[in-house]
Amino acid sequence: MDESRPETVVGSKSFTAVAVNCAAKAGEYIKMKLGTTGQPDFKYSRQDLVTEADKGAERLVRNLIATHFPDHSFLGEEGVEPGPEASAAALREALEAEYLWIVDPIDGTTNFVHGFPFFAVSIALARNGRVIVGVVYDPVRDELFVAERGKGAYVRGKRLKVSAERTLGESLLATGFSANPAVMRINAREASALVQKARNLRVCGSAALHLAYVAAGRLSGFWEHGLNAWDLAAGSLLVEEAGGRMSGVNGEPFDLRVRDVAASNGLIHDELLAALREVE
Ligand code: 2AM
Ligand code: CA
C-alpha cells in the first residue's frame, strides 16, 4: 500500500478502464433522465441549452475521476463559462496540466431536450495536451466507442476502420450547425455546396458521435465550425486510431485548440477541404 496516496484512491485501475466506467455510468444516468428534465436553461444563446441532466452527469464523472485520480485536472463543458472566449481561456489553462480529463456529459444536448435519439457522453484523457484515451458512449444504441493512442479504436470488441470511399461523389458527409448566427450562415452555404458534391449530407447534432461514425466507417467525412475541446477530444482519437485524418478546415494540423474542424477517412480529405475553400 502506498502511504502517500489518500485513502480515497481506488486501486490501480487503468486510465481506459476508468474512462469506460465513467462513460457507462453517465450514459445510464442521462438515458434515465431522457424526457424528464423539463425546460432547459439557455447558456450563451437560445440555441445553447443546458439541462439538469448535463450538470448531474458531469458531477458524476468528475467525482468518479477524482476518486481514482485525485491529482489529475478536469475540464468539463458545464464547469466553464459559456461562449468561445471563456472556453478558449479555460482550455489554455487546463492544457498546462500533465493529465487532463476532458468531458462533455451530453454531446447533443439539443437532441436530448427534444428526445431525438442521437447524443453521447464524451470522455478523453490528455497527457501534456495530447489525447491518449478517448471514449464516446451512445446510451440509446448502447454503443461504446473506445480508443487508446497506438492501440486502435474499438466498438463492442470490433476494431474500427474508416471507410474506403475515394471521392466526395461517393461520400456520405456530416456537418453541424453552430449556435452562432454568423457562423451558421457560412455553414449553411457550405452545406448547400457540399451536399451537391457528395452522395448526401447528414446533420445529426452531436460532433462526438459524428466523429465516432467517421471512425466506424459509417460516415466518410465531417466538418464543423466553433467546436470546443470537449466536443472533439475523444472523437478525434477514435478517428486517428481508426486510420482516418483530423485537421483544421484550412488544413492546419489538428490539436485541441482547433475549433473549426474536418475529419475524414483520409482518402477524401483534400477534396473535402478544397470544396470548403471554394465556398464564398
Ligand atoms: P453540445 O450538445 O454539447 O452543446 C452540434 O452541431 C454540435 O455543436 C454538438 O456537438 C454540440 O455540443 C455543439 N454545440 C452546440 N451549441 C454550441 C455552442 N453554442 N458552442 C459550441 N458548440 C456548440
Ligand atoms: Ca458538446
Description:
The chain has 280 residues and is of the alpha+beta class. It has two domains: 9-159, Fructose-1,6-Bisphosphatase, subunit A, domain 1 (Fructose-1,6-Bisphosphatase, Chain A, domain 1, 2-Layer Sandwich), CATH 3.30.540.10; 168-277, 3-Layer(aba) Sandwich (D-Maltodextrin-Binding Protein, domain 2), CATH 3.40.190.80. The chain contains eight helices and 14 strands. The strands form three sheets. A seven-stranded mixed beta sheet has the order 3-4-5-6-7-8-9, sandwiched between helices. The protein has a five-stranded mixed beta sheet with strand order 11-10-12-14-13, with helices on both faces. A two-stranded antiparallel sheet has the order 1-2. Helix 1 runs antiparallel to helix 2 and helix 6 runs parallel beside helix 7 (229-241). The radius of gyration is 18 Å and the shape is globular. It binds adenosine-2'-monophosphate (2AM) and calcium ion. Residues 44, 48, 77, 104, 107-110, 176-177, 179, 205-207, 224, 226-228, 231 line the site of adenosine-2'-monophosphate.
